[in-house]
Amino acid sequence: MACDANEQKPEVCQLCDSKSGSPALKQPLNYSLIWSTNSHDDDCGYFWLPTPPYGYKAMGVVVTNKPEEPSIEEVRCVRVDLTENCETCDLIISTDSKTFKNQFQVWNTRPCKRGMFAKGVSVGTFYCSTYLSSGDDLLDVACLKNLDYTLHAMPNLDQIHALIKHYGPTVFFHPDEDYMPSSVQWFFKNGALLYQDGKDEGQPIDYRGSNLPNGGQNDGGYWIDLPNDDDARNNIKRGDLESAEFYIHVKPALGGTFTDIAIWVFCPFNGPATLKVGLMNIPMTKIGQHVGDWEHFTLRVSNFTGELWQVFFSQHSGGQWVNASDLEFIEGNRPIVYSSKHGHASFPHPGTYLQGSTKLAIGVRNDTARSKYYVDSSTKYQLIAAEYLGDGVVREPCWLQFMREWGPTIVYDSRSELDKIISLLPFFVRFSVENIFDLFPTELYGEEGPTGPKVKDNWLGDEIC
């Protein structure tokens, strides 16, 4: 629904004193009927889009159970400088074309620009259309814009710690996990080396990361690798659960109406993948391995109520937002996060998740389960950044400024590995090598070393979904 004229507050009315002299809110000129059920019973519905005056935007759609056009007194449109463009996101309803004459979709909306510095505010409205809409379409409705750059609704330092203590998830690692997380300091102390392009020898890294090159960009000039000694390499690969801690970045979301608490976990090594081909599960010896693994999940908390709304689970090159009502919890309000075996992707429930073609049952297994191996982020954490609090309030660690790769670039001999897989398959279910290459995730065939949290797109932007 759009803004209700009966719910205007003094704060909103103050916006009428704009340079143009135009009020913040105006009645729509009329309505356009977008769609109706064309039903003659009591369950009929009519979806109306307000027609805004020039210089104003509609915020949403009005739904009635009568064919008569609604009164223009029902809603208000918002002055354009107080709005942001929005896009569709989650599909809520899609009618069956066999039941209704015209297919109809109802979508949630969100601001097009999202992230730490974006000012768009979701207003809880929806968008309707009789054609399949995508996130790139320019909609006939808008979101609001927060013009208050002080972000006074964001939590202060004490409130941040209270939120983490209250909502900090417990992360369970798979019972057969061979590559545990560790603290960054443990990784450095146990022999991680800094390499520079053109030099054969790696240099030891100070436990704080103070001798890592800061700033710049990921230009291939430096990277981190494991120690050369085999015993030391194997030791560091296994990680150290006792030292493990989470690294937390707190930032405004959706115009400061929400707080995003991004929680990062570091694993010294990402283990090999297990491939699923039909009914067969084939453990790989090398494919999927890489040095240094940064994974994260994000809590989204309402700044109006302090409630946990959603959690984002990062899963390799993508991820998913999950509503609080669909999460598992432990000890009150703290969600459970399941880390996948060897790959450390985050999932909301135990089980096996396939990365690839679920229809053909071909891809990479992500196995999750509860075990005795876990870390409680509500107690074992380090706050590494909260820029909105101002300079010096949260001191960023030296290693956070390292913008290069936390592992060397790897290219796997995937053709020979896949040839081995094909040779194991019954003749009547074999695929060509080319088809199998298309079905498996591209990162299995080689990848650059992973970069640290501050280089990721979601450091300043929104989560990928």
Automatic annotation (TrEMBL):
InterPro entries in UniProt: Vps62 (IPR009291)
Family annotation (Pfam families): Vps62
Domain of life: Eukaryota
Protein name: Vacuolar protein sorting-associated protein 62
Organism name: Hevea brasiliensis
